[in-house]
């Protein structure tokens, strides 16, 4: 029932702002239901909500961006306290691993492809991956391979001469800022990103000096 109702909201015609509001309301309902219990049912609801949101990140059927404006919904689902059931921590970690892996796969699938919809998909999945890494509790275990591939893709996109590089720069800067909390996972991310960041800044310096790049691109080095 939930999935069919959500599909109707997602695919319905109308103004983008109205569709975004409906999607936000739908996920707010998920969060409300989940917050109303501390049993294993909370993790069930969270899982269904995350699964549905992953469909937004996977979509490339049109050029309309429904993911960016609805990222707060993803964060709300990730931020819900764990249920009191014994396996809640394990279920949450597997859910995070699956979602993060899906984001990386979505990006990999766009390799060699062009177009507004493809660019939108890469940007949104980069941003979603960083949102996940910065939103989950420090006690959440994330597979090393997934973390390394996340940082590899951010580094790769950062050094490309493409508009996605600005999004990658924003992702890198977000991880750097968040790592100041002392989170070991985020510090590991910064360490993995450092070679690409150094190369990026080295390339930007002469362009900043002659004024040939925007402040947005230059700001990563601040």
Automatic annotation (TrEMBL):
<feature type="domain" description="LAA1-like C-terminal TPR repeats">
    <location>
        <begin position="145"/>
        <end position="204"/>
    </location>
</feature>
<dbReference type="GO" id="GO:0042147">
    <property type="term" value="P:retrograde transport, endosome to Golgi"/>
</dbReference>
<dbReference type="GO" id="GO:0005829">
    <property type="term" value="C:cytosol"/>
</dbReference>
<dbReference type="GO" id="GO:0005794">
    <property type="term" value="C:Golgi apparatus"/>
</dbReference>
<dbReference type="InterPro" id="IPR057981">
    <property type="entry name" value="TPR_LAA1-like_C"/>
</dbReference>
<protein>
    <recommendedName>
        <fullName>LAA1-like C-terminal TPR repeats domain-containing protein</fullName>
    </recommendedName>
</protein>
<dbReference type="GO" id="GO:0016020">
    <property type="term" value="C:membrane"/>
</dbReference>
<dbReference type="GO" id="GO:0006897">
    <property type="term" value="P:endocytosis"/>
</dbReference>
<dbReference type="GO" id="GO:0030139">
    <property type="term" value="C:endocytic vesicle"/>
</dbReference>
<dbReference type="GO" id="GO:0008104">
    <property type="term" value="P:intracellular protein localization"/>
</dbReference>
<dbReference type="InterPro" id="IPR040108">
    <property type="entry name" value="Laa1/Sip1/HEATR5"/>
</dbReference>
<dbReference type="Pfam" id="PF25808">
    <property type="entry name" value="TPR_LAA1_C"/>
</dbReference>
């Amino acid at each position: 029932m939930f999935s069919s109702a959500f599909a109707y909201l997602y695919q319905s015609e109308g103004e983008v702002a109205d569709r975004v509001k409906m999607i936000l309301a739908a996920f707010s309902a998920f969060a409300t239901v989940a917050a109303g219990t501390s049993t294993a049912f909370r993790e069930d609801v969270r899982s269904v909500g995350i699964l549905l949101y992953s469909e937004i990140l996977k979509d490339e059927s049109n050029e309309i961006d429904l993911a960016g404006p609805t990222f707060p919904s993803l964060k709300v689902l990730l931020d819900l306290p764990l249920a009191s059931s014994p396996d809640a921590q394990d279920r949450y970690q597997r859910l995070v691993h699956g979602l993060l892996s899906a984001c990386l796969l979505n990006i990999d699938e766009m390799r060699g492809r062009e177009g507004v919809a493809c660019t939108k998909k890469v940007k949104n999945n980069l941003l979603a991956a960083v949102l996940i890494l910065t939103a989950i509790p420090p006690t959440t275990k994330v597979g090393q391979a997934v973390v390394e591939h996340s940082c590899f893709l951010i580094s790769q996109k950062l050094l490309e001469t493409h508009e996605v590089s600005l999004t990658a720069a924003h992702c890198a800067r977000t991880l750097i800022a968040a790592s100041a909390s002392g989170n070991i996972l985020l510090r590991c991310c910064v360490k993995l990103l450092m070679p690409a960041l150094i190369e990026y800044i080295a390339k930007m310096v002469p362009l900043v000096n002659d004024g040939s790049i925007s402040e947005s691109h230059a700001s990563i080095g601040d």
